[in-house]
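haha ok so turns out i had the wrong file open the whole time. this is the CORRECT one, sorry everyone. sequence first:
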Amino acid sequence: MRKVKVGIVGCGKISGIYMENINKFEILELAACADIDRARAEEQAARYGVPAVCTTEEMLQNPDIEIIINLTIPALHASICLAALHAGKHVYVEKPLAITREEGKQVLALAKEKGLLVGSAPETFFGSGIQTALSLIENGAIGKPVGATAFMMSRGHENWHPDPEFYYALGGGPMFDMGPYYLTALVQLLGPIRRIAGMTGKALEQRTITSEKKYGNKISVQVPTHVAGTLEFEQGAIATLIMSFDIFGGSDLPHIEIYGTEGTLRVPDPNGFGGPVLLRRIGEKDWGEQPLLPGYKENTRGIGPADMAYALQSGRPHRASGELAYHVLEAMWAFHDSSDNGAYHEMISRCNRPASLPLDLTLYELDK
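then structure:
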């Protein structure tokens, strides 16, 4: 396998872990980074040894760079992806794929027209935690899956994030911030979604930043901050989901549980890569922690672009695909639409359940 050169657009908080990991994968080479704030790009480049800092336009014109990793804020996801595709680059974007379904469709349509690949975070389902849960389900450890719960209970980001405003603007809120992790994990474990019923709410119209950089500044809350609903999967399982920035007193609810005819599986935080994975079968009083499959237990963001680079060379499907990301994007909007319309949202998009990772691979190699 030859190395594939990649460039990162957007050098904010999340870029560091990508820069740290990318060159660990034998197929990837990080060639350049760009940011609207050049000083920020230069700071990250110096910290992580990125060989070149450039403008986005310069990166798109560089014939050696094949994949653009788009780590900009959600409002820019679609425009940067479209620009990269027009320039003949494959693109991998942080979650969500786009803010609106219309933008997401444009990205996928242009990629198809150009014969290019689109990938999207989250890639945490590559981790040993969710891969172990998937293996247990596929091997019948809980029998037939019949239901699930998923909870993301938080007080919001204004108390810790240096620039929390976009979390409360269009494209933000708990569903668009954290929903991709939970919904992608559920699709990996249970397959595509058939229909959704949802309700949305908002506890506060204004929030006060208490993190140091902008302490005391006010944020106007433009999006729902508490989203709840149910999902029916094509294979028949029914899940209950709550995504909230309005849990000010804390919560001990599990991240994800899958319920089957023979037992229950507790799935680890889908915003991470490791465990623990807990199983309790019929007749057992206690949870049993399951040994994790070999693989990725630490924060391995960058594995999605690496998998896509292998797919470019082998022709196989990549796992964190644009189709999967669009299915999740439609599902996130479905909760809001259902709440607004007082009716089920019947899913239009379909996607393939991503293939599990082979167990006989060396770390940081995703194909033989």
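The CA atoms of residues 307 and 318 lie 6 Å apart.
again sry for the mixup
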